[in-house]
């Protein structure tokens, strides 16, 4: 073979090594499977891989490291979807060498079901969101343990917030065994440490909300009822790039909120949601739907109509799906929601500015920040003040005052 011959290289990536093998366009083996340590893989790739090679690997925990390493070296790097590849390549005999050559052969005939490779800023936000989710989960576990201790000993807790600092003395004065007291004391200490870490994580999330590219995308989501700053960032991190989805239907399918369908011959039936997609996007959509029906009359009316026909649980899933369709429309087309009330949206933006401490980061007052976001959406030019706890005076809009400020979604 000449150096110009195209090779299709399969990579079976593991924790400590990569199994590498390659075939040519006729699916003939040109590189027999070999094991390369991850420590030595970068030098090996630069020495033996060619600029005309195409490579494939499955999406695993360290797939992005290998992808970024290979991208400047070879012509193409494909990251495959593991469950879909498994459906294609199901076999009774499974070894690393077989898997590697199967990946290479599938790539040579362009049969690899690909996944989207998120850019670095999306990966960082996803990692931070996941980190915060783990912290919240750990905090919940500790609180549950403490509540369980009270339940075991038939102790009635004081009214109000049980875990606030003012109740620490009450916890320490409980008449319990020494080992039980030790566990309670250590759980309370961990709760305090977690509270400090959660505060630090929240500060970093707020900082990211005021940085590109999230700052220019967040107004289109925060304008919607039920979606606050943290919720919006979870949605942004899960979706990454809205242009990947040419229709709202594709986004609904990606979230796993689409209905199961079986249609064959004379049989046609639908079932529950597929749950095939990003779990956090599905969960946050349902969470946002509950908030939306609580505070927004438009969504409440839709929910009540559906709940009377199909029940509350199915109705809230349907509302979550509708909300996701609205998210696609306003974000994909960069437009204002047709149900948006400018005064209410201004309060959302004011809350965002105060929460993210825009004065310290952007040297802007929260009211000036809210006006900037309103101008991005093209609404609320007539607003001069907003009541949000106190009365905030908004700077004049830079946009002309017109009846129809923006095309509705």
Characterization of the model:
With 409 residues, the chain is α/β, with parallel strands linked by helices. The chain folds into four domains: 8-108, Nucleotidyltransferase, domain 5 (2-Layer Sandwich); 121-209; 215-333, no CATH class; 335-409, no CATH class. The chain is 54% helix and 13% strand. It is built from 16 helices and nine strands. Strands 3-2-1-4-5 form a five-stranded mixed β-sheet. Strand 4 (54-58), helix 2 and strand 5 (76-80) form a beta-alpha-beta unit. It starts with 7 loop residues before the first strand and ends in a 16-residue tail after the last strand. The mean pLDDT is 91.
Which helices and strands occur, and which strands form pairs?
Elements: E1 8-13, E2 17-23, E3 29-37, H1 38-48, E4 54-58, H2 63-70, E5 76-80, H3 82-89, H4 96-108, H5 120-152, H6 168-172, H7 178-209, H8 214-222, H9 229-239, H10 248-255, E6 259-264, E7 267-273, H11 279-295, H12 297-310, H13 312-332, H14 342-355, H15 358-362, H16 366-377, E8 385-388, E9 390-393
Parallel strand pairs: 1-4, 4-5
Antiparallel strand pairs: 1-2, 2-3, 6-7, 8-9
Helix pairs in contact: 5-7, 5-9, 8-9, 9-11, 10-13, 11-12, 11-13, 12-13, 14-16
Features:
409 residues; alpha/beta; Nucleotidyltransferase, domain 5; five-stranded mixed β-sheet; two-stranded antiparallel ribbon; 16 helices; 9 strands; 13% strand
